[in-house]
Amino acid sequence: MASTFHEFANGADLAEALADKVAKQLSAAISKKGAASIAVSGGSTPKRFFEALSGKDLDWTKVSVTLVDERFVPADSPRSNHLLVATHLLKDKAAATTFIPLYHEAATIDTAAEIATGKTASICNPFDVAILGMGGDGHTASFFPRGNHLAKALNLSTPRGVMTMAAEGAGEERLTFTFSSLSDAPLLVLHIEGQEKKDVLAKAEAGSDEKNMPIRAVLTRAVSPLEIYWAP
Ligand SMILES: O=C(O)[C@H](O)[C@@H](O)[C@H](O)[C@H](O)COP(=O)(O)O
Questions:
Q1: Which residues form the Glucosamine/galactosamine-6-phosphate isomerase domain (predicted)?
Q2: CA of 1 to the centre of ligand 1 (A)
Q3: Is 92 left (phi over 0), alpha (psi -120 to 50) or beta?
Q4: Which atom of ligand 1 is nearest to the CA of 67?
Q5: Looking at ligand 1, which residue's alpha carbon is closest to its atom 13?
């Protein structure tokens, strides 16, 4: 599906514009079906966007927030995406929202993935909004190059849900929604910042091998149009 590139003068302008766009999408979903859901990415890029979104005036009691992916660490770990979202998004007006974590203290990460799949089944069919980031290696979500379950994760025939991923560049083992869970969000966003990430995007767009740059699956095979938000 096609993508649209939205360029901003700086990260603050991008954060405000993206927060406005997401708030409008969530409010429209609430008006239409009485509820809304959003899956957000972790990492460092989204912080300003989360801060801007937390102050948006909408009926947050009708919104479910979850993560696109999570490191398999408890919420008090500095590596936790749950902690990142709790710190920067689940406050101010957004404090009233329902957050559904992916990490669950379980005997195995596979059991945690099964629990997360069950707890999110009602909000990912499809998500109203999915916000993706991208690493310098061309990963998105936890679709890492040469990840042990990458083919299954990127296969749009794989049932929606949360699965595990291990990869050289991932650090901890990961929990990640499948591409099929994210691909048809009516508002599908890739949020990247800086010249380096713009160069990585250009490299991804110039090639087709998804094993080496999994972001290519999102750029070329997403069901929904992709909105790329970029600032220097
Ligand atoms: O758990 C994670 O790390 C994220 O979900 C991941 O997919 C992130 O979006 C990219 O790694 C970009 O991270 P930065 O924004 O820190 O560059």
A1: 12-221
A2: 23
A3: left
A4: 5
A5: 43
Dihedral angle sign, alpha carbons of residues 191, 192, 198, 202: negative
Question: Do the Cβ atoms of 183 and 97 come closer than 8 Å?
Answer: no
Count the helix, strand and coil residues of the chain and give each as a percent rounded to the nearest 5: 40, 20, 40
Query: Which numbered atom of ligand 1 lies nearest the CA of 71?
Result: 1
Is the backbone peptide bond immediately before 232 cis, with ω within 30 degrees of 0? Answer: no
The model's pLDDT over 170-187, given as tens digits with 9 standing for 90+, comes to 999 999 999 999 999 999
**Cα–Cα distance, 164 to 177 (Å, whole number):** 9
pLDDT for residue 32: 98
Contact by Cβ (8 Å): 41, 191: yes
Q: Give residue limits of the domains in the chain.
A: 3-169+194-231
pLDDT of residue 94: 98
- Nearest partner of 115 among 172, 158, 162, judged by Cα: 162
The residue written with tokens 């102050």 in the block is: 55
Q: Which two tokens stand for residue 220?
A: 């070329």
CATH number for region 3-169+194-231: 3.40.50.1360
